[in-house]
C-alpha cells in the first residue's frame, strides 16, 4: 500500500472507492433490517462506521496496516488518516479485483463485525470484573 506522501502512484483512488463500498454496505445492511429507517438515522450509522478517528483507523490499526503502508519519511504511518485511507483502499481493491463492489462490502462487514464482537466481549469481561 502506498500513501500519497510517498508517491504520486498511490492508493487514493482505491480509498475513495473503498469508502463508497463501505457506505453502501452499511446502507444495504440497515435497509435490509429496517426498510423504514429514517434518513437521519441511516446517515448517522454511515457516519459512525466511516469516522476516521473512532472506527476506520481503529479497524485498520487492528489489521496492523500502519506496518505495511509506504509513506514519506516525514509522515507517520500510524496517523489515523493514513491508516484509514489504507483500510478503505483495501476494500476498494477487493471490489476492483473481483469486479464486484458487494464483495468488497462483504469483506468489510466480516472484518468490522469481528472486531466489534471482540470489543463487546472485552467490555462484558471488564464489567464483570468491576462487579
Q: Secondary-structure map with pairings?
A:
Elements: H1 12-33, H2 39-50, H3 52-62, H4 80-98, H5 101-130
Structure in words:
InterPro entries: RNase_III_dom, RNase_III_sf. It comes from Ilex paraguariensis. Residues 1-99 form the RNase III domain. The chain is an all-alpha fold and 131 residues long. The protein has a single domain, classed as Ribonuclease III domain (Ribonuclease iii, N-terminal Endonuclease Domain, Chain A), CATH 1.10.1520. It contains 5 helices and no strands. The radius of gyration is 16 Å and the shape is globular.
Termini separation: 45 Å
* Overall structural domain count: 1
So what's the CATH class? Mainly Alpha
Count of DSSP helices?
Answer: 5
Major sheet size, sense and barrel closure: none
CATH architecture: Orthogonal Bundle
**Helix percent band:** over 70%
Task: Tell me what portion of residues adopts beta-strand conformation.
Answer: under 5%
Give average pLDDT, whole number: 85
Q: What structural class is derived from the secondary structure elements?
A: mainly alpha
Low-confidence stretches: none
CATH superfamily: Ribonuclease III domain
Amino acid at each position: 500500500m502506498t500513501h500519497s506522501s510517498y508517491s504520486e502512484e498511490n492508493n487514493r483512488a482505491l480509498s475513495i472507492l473503498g469508502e463508497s463500498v463501505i457506505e453502501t454496505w452499511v446502507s444495504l445492511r440497515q435497509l435490509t433490517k429496517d426498510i423504514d429507517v429514517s434518513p437521519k438515522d441511516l446517515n448517522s450509522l454511515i457516519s459512525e462506521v466511516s469516522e476516521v478517528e473512532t472506527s476506520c483507523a481503529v479497524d485498520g490499526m487492528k489489521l496492523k496496516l500502519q506496518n505495511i503502508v509506504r509513506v514519506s519519511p516525514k509522515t507517520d504511518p500510524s496517523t489515523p488518516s493514513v491508516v484509514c485511507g489504507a483500510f478503505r483502499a483495501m476494500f476498494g481493491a477487493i471490489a476492483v479485483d473481483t469486479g464486484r463492489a458487494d464483495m468488497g462490502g462483504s469483506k468489510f462487514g466480516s472484518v468490522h463485525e469481528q472486531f466489534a464482537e471482540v470489543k463487546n466481549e472485552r467490555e462484558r469481561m471488564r464489567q464483570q470484573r468491576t462487579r
